[in-house]
Write a structure and sequence with these properties.
The structure holds two protein chains of two kinds. By secondary structure, chain A is mostly helical. Chain A has twelve helices and no strands. Chain A starts with a helix and ends with a helix. In chain B, helix 8 runs antiparallel to helix 9. The model of chain B has no long low-confidence stretch (mean pLDDT 88). The chains are: A mainly alpha, B mainly alpha.
Chain lengths: 261, 270
């Protein structure tokens, strides 16, 4: 569409400002985390790794980090195969009930997370899963499933299903033809789905606030509790690290899916 | 085929449907059937005020997101491919950054000794620090920041599908760029507007972290009623009833929207 010059300049200026609003708050944490000052100041008076040392040297933060990483990895390991299987079933089946199942599987995105969190807390309290690793992983698998399903379903949509039929007509069984023919072609969308499930588990806060406790508290729960009391610059260091991990993973997920699917 | 979807379905049934069902049951059953929890929501002032405030904030955040998100999505849809990728990357990266980290960033920016107050004081615009956070203002700024991508992505997806020939046809019939935008582009982008607005509105209704951390105890949104009833007062029935009311509101909104556009189009954006 052709736009007259003043409109164009106005659009560019507005966009630049809005994009700045989106990205600047995330970037501003990094310089603060390298500050030597006790209080958050910008620009930092002098640079140091003080808050990173504080983080690494603190057993409670380290334990929380271990919990977060364990939960995130286990979530990916469990949610990815479950999600791939479900997405495959949805794409293959022409049953009407599959549409209903598809919508049900996306429920975690629809139900306000605070409601899910409190509901899970009630159930876990009944069966003794509060403050356990198992409970934390189960909840995160549930929250991560929709990301895997959406990503893989999109991958399967652009995949030509007749290829698998050809493989089957040549004598491969269904399972083998899936792993040999289909999976390699939707690989990028599977990896992307897994990465999003990982980020979702790493960032998850609200459910953890209710159901985690004792030695099984993830980073986000400890950060949230610390933030309620005072603004500890150690959190700037942890936030910077978490953001760096997210950025890298998103870049991997999106660049791969462009090449693959 | 059903068997393949079963494990995932089981997870969702056990960890979403069952807990929410239990919540609903608990809201009306406590040593016998009772509507006391709902009566309290109806009669007590604090509940009314919280519901009203939450809906006000949701309307405000949705309108602001539309105002800021539309130009971004529009620019991404008309810009050369390379620039479109840059714009979308700048939208998607915050989208996948922890909500908690972003709330913390806004706390650091907006507090009394925060970056914005420091800068404004250094350049002499203000003498006393402005109260930018621990109120509704701070909550809205941070909530908008977190939900803006949910507006931009559906808008962009819709705008990208608008055939460019239509605008050329309009131009060849003598309409200027302004007229083609208002009469052709804007109406065709409305499904995206509806999808994005629905997502932002519904997500704001259930928002918890930003009002809790940036609201300063004064901006009590619905989700905070739920959590306080559980954590502080041990009132599971009351918490459940508030949760059910919130869920019904969300359900009704999705149902109303699904009459106009298919729901998977609203949800498929993530």
């Amino acid at each position: 569409m052709t736009m007259s010059r003043p409109y164009r300049i106005a659009l560019i200026v507005v966009c630049a400002l809005v994009l700045l609003y989106l990205i600047l708050p995330i970037l501003i944490i990094a310089p603060m985390s390298f500050s030597a000052a006790r209080f958050l100041t910008f620009p930092p008076p002098s640079l140091s790794l003080r808050w990173y040392q504080e983080y690494v040297g603190n057993p409670a933060w380290m334990q929380a980090t271990r919990v977060t990483l364990t939960v995130a990895v286990l979530t990916v390991v469990i949610a990815t195969p479950l999600g791939v299987a479900a997405a495959y079933a949805i794409s293959q089946s022409k049953w009407r009930i599959m549409r209903l199942i598809h919508m049900t599987l996306l429920l975690p995105l629809v139900v306000p997370i605070i409601i899910t969190a409190v509901g899970i807390f009630f159930i876990f309290a009944k069966v003794g899963l509060v403050a356990t690793m198992t409970g934390l992983v189960l909840a995160n698998v549930m929250l991560g499933l929709p990301y895997v399903i959406i990503s893989v379903a999109a991958g399967l949509q652009s995949f030509d299903a007749t290829q698998e039929m050809v493989a089957r007509s040549l004598g491969m069984n269904r399972l083998r033809s899936f792993f040999v023919v289909t999976l390699p072609q939707i690989k990028a969308s599977v990896i992307a789905g897994g990465i999003f499930a990982f980020i979702s588990a790493m960032d998850e806060t609200i459910v953890a606030l209710f159901i985690s406790g004792g030695q099984y508290q993830p980073l986000t729960k400890r950060m949230f509790t610390a933030l309620r009391d005072e603004i500890d610059p150690t959190i700037a260091a942890i936030s910077t690290l978490m953001t760096a991990v997210s950025f890298m993973l998103v870049l991997i997920a999106t660049s791969r899916s462009k090449k693959g699917a | 085929m059903l068997a393949l979807a079963l494990p995932a379905l089981l997870v969702i049934l056990l960890l979403v449907v069952l807990p929410v069902g239990w919540l609903a049951w608990q809201s009306v059953y406590h040593d016998g059937f009772t509507l006391a929890n709902y009566r309290r929501i109806w009669s007590e002032d604090i509940y009314w005020r919280s519901f009203a405030l939450t809906f006000e904030i949701a309307v405000l955040v949705t309108l602001l997101a539309l105002l800021l998100g539309y130009p971004i999505a529009y620019a991404a849809s008309v810009a050369p491919k390379r620039w479109a990728i840059v714009i979308l990357a700048l939208v998607v990266l915050p989208f996948w950054t922890s909500v908690l980290v972003r709330a913390y960033a806004w706390l650091a920016l907006l507090q009394r000794t925060g970056v914005i107050n420091q800068v404004l004081r250094q350049i002499g615009v203000i003498d006393e620090p402005l109260a930018l956070v621990h109120n509704t203002f701070g909550t809205v700024v941070a909530t908008l920041h977190i939900l803006l991508p949910f507006m931009v992505l559906p808008l962009y997806a819709t705008m990208q599908q608008i055939p460019r020939d239509l605008m050329q046809a309009g131009a060849s019939l003598g309409a200027g760029p302004t007229l083609t935008f208002w009469r052709i582009f804007l109406p065709l982008s409305l499904p995206g507007v509806l999808a994005g607005s629905t997502l932002v509105f519904v997500l704001t209704l259930g928002f918890y972290i930003t009002p809790e951390l940036l609201g300063g105890g004064r901006t009590i949104m619905i989700s905070m009623l739920v959590s306080r009833n559980v954590e502080l007062y041990d009132q599971w029935g009351a918490a459940s009833a508030v949760g059910v009311v919130l869920l019904v509101a969300v359900g009704l909104i999705f149902f109303a929207v699904s009459r106009f556009i298919p729901l998977d189009r609203v949800l498929g954006q993530k």
